[in-house]
Specification:
heterodimer, A: alpha/beta, eight-stranded mixed β-sheet, three-stranded mixed β-sheet, 15 helices, globular, B: mainly alpha, 3 helices, 59% helix, elongated
Chain lengths: 471, 74
Amino acid sequence: MSRPITHRTLDDIAREIAAGHLSSLEVTDACLARIEQVAPKLDCIADMDADAARTAARRSDQARRKNGNAGPLDGIPLAHKDMYYRQGRISGCGSKIRASFVPDHTATALQRLDRAGALDIARLNMVEFALGVTGHNDVMPTPRNPWNTAHFTGGSSSGSGAAVAARLVYGALGSDTGGSIRLPAACCGLVGMKPTLGRVSRYGAMPLSHSLDTVGPLTRTVRDNALLLGVIAGTDGNDPTTSPLAVPDYLDDIEGDIRGLRIGVPGTYFYDGIDPGVEQLVRSSLDVYRAAGADIIALDLPASIAATNSMTSLITAVEGSTLHYEWLRDRYDDYGNQTRTRFSLGLMTPATVYHQAISLRTKILDEFAGAVFDKVDVLHTPMINLPVPAYSPSDSVADQAFLDLIARIGHCTRPINYLGLPGLNVPCGFTDNGLPCSFQLVGRPFDEKTLYRAGYAYEQQTGWTDQAPDL
Amino acid sequence: MPHPDDTALCTWLARFQRLDMSESQVESPAKTAAAFARTIGEAARGLSFDTDPATFNQHLHALAPAYLKDGTAE
């Protein structure tokens, strides 16, 4: 029996619309009905105009009948983290302070999705100003995990994780400064790509940390993710930090053989303090690769990797508090407790320490690249080293235990932001509490393509991404 | 020289910023800032600071052709 429209993949729906088997209006209506049924349980929608979504879908159908397919995402309903600016539409950034902010320009990533024919049907809730890894938001609704609404979605792209996992839309943009795409993807059983720094334009995306911010997609499958990244990636005159390197066709050879692919497994750092159940699932995924003919190679990482978690947090706090300086002074009470505490850390950090953290970056990347990519094609690591926790009343406290928890949750993600490298979240099963578990694939600079090929090979062998939460 | 775990300094900073923070709220970030400073100091051991941090993006670009053998970086 065929799956409900909402439960098919982005790639399948794109083919069905292009072939005329489904209209964009039929697909959009299915998504809107699903949203009406499920979204109230999840608190993931910040705002949605159903009539406007249907009007956009009808226009898409009319244009396709007249002119043919507009692009690879023609007629597909998507929704995005509420920090991507669209001219004339509120972008609240998960905050009280920007709750009525109306930007005068549109993010490059949104423009590229528009040109590819995608519909943008909702704004998705997020962690306040994208500063948080659990998904908790003190001042706006906190999205719930579709696999168990008592648990974290992960953050900061919390609404993106919940909405895509719940089959409300086929994909969503998130942003990743210290793990904010990969962590909600991991907690919600999705595929999430943090691209290489400079691969995707940040123009029109709310800034948090100019040294670390990246833009990327959360989707249900690896192929869907490659499709979305291919649309949004590439140089942009409005963002001088984007790379001029050509964007490869990520779908070309995604089904390619992985025999002989060299996969590195770190002997240090990434497995420190890991929960035994999580470790068992993550290491089992290596058996799948081994059986597929990949070479699994043990690696020693340079000791400097251990400092990168702290330095990522520090850089984020300093650059973020600089951006928020005026509001921290004038609108302190409008921030949530955890957000202002973490920004305050930036205010208290000596400039010399910040500059050390920035200055060490190139050196540590060189050490890491030599230790890893001179020997293997891809590094395989855990993503979160504990089962997805439940929310608790203590989540709004900003004490040392909270700071320790976010350091633990970001243990495997933040180093990859510090190094500027691409990282892909791939689901690999469920822990004893019934929540998803994932591993991370880390690639060479601008080599997202190999990560997709490796992620796809695993996905085809296991089928974890076919599973949907029962809502 | 003041140290970032000096609570009095942090309280002074908070007041300077007009942030009405209690000392208990100040304590955690201050401790964490001090821990960061120590961590970074350890990481810096054996490494020289001869790189302009503004070149990090260019450095990623420079690494790509060396590692991407299939032409995608060209």
